[in-house]
């Protein structure tokens, strides 16, 4: 029975994580396929760039919620509270966003949904709260210093397993964080190439020198 409940919960998690928010908002607000505009990515950053601040913010929030709901509501609904199952649910949520069945298994890069997963895990495992605060701080610090969303995401992803180890998180949480890090690096391979070539798009903040 437990395996059946796990299978159902993971199936539900996948369907929630796979909702292609940016694609839907592109169709609703501009009647476009966002995959054919901007970077072509189905994520919050490209939604901001192509659809504007309002829709972009909505996409970001919903994509975060896609990580929170599975690790809290879905897990609680089926009675899963152990770190191993929570970690698996979190990975499925992010994988669903990255490889959504609704867009022929081509999705976003998983940053917002990974943040949602981490938020959900801190609700379930309060000892992980320092990890959440540290990762958000690292992301903001790198972004404000350099202006690259991709670089901030990559550095934060690499910092995640380190933070997990630092707070003596359960071993399965460390493993989950390593997999999430690999997801981020893999999905950002084109960004890494552009960063190395000096061709990556930079967000222009008011305090940057011209």
Number of helices: 10
Tally of domains: 1
Give the termini separation: 62 Å
Low-confidence stretches: none
Strand tally: 0
Short description:
Helices cover 72% and strands 0% of the residues. It has 210 residues and is mostly helical.
If you had to describe this structure to a student in words, what would you say it looks like?
With about 210 residues, this protein is an all-alpha fold. It has one domain. The chain has 10 helices and no strands.
Topology of this structure?
Elements: H1 2-17, H2 21-30, H3 44-51, H4 53-77, H5 83-98, H6 111-124, H7 129-146, H8 149-166, H9 171-187, H10 189-197
Please give a handful of descriptors for the protein shown.
210 residues, mainly alpha, 10 helices, 72% helix, 0% strand, globular
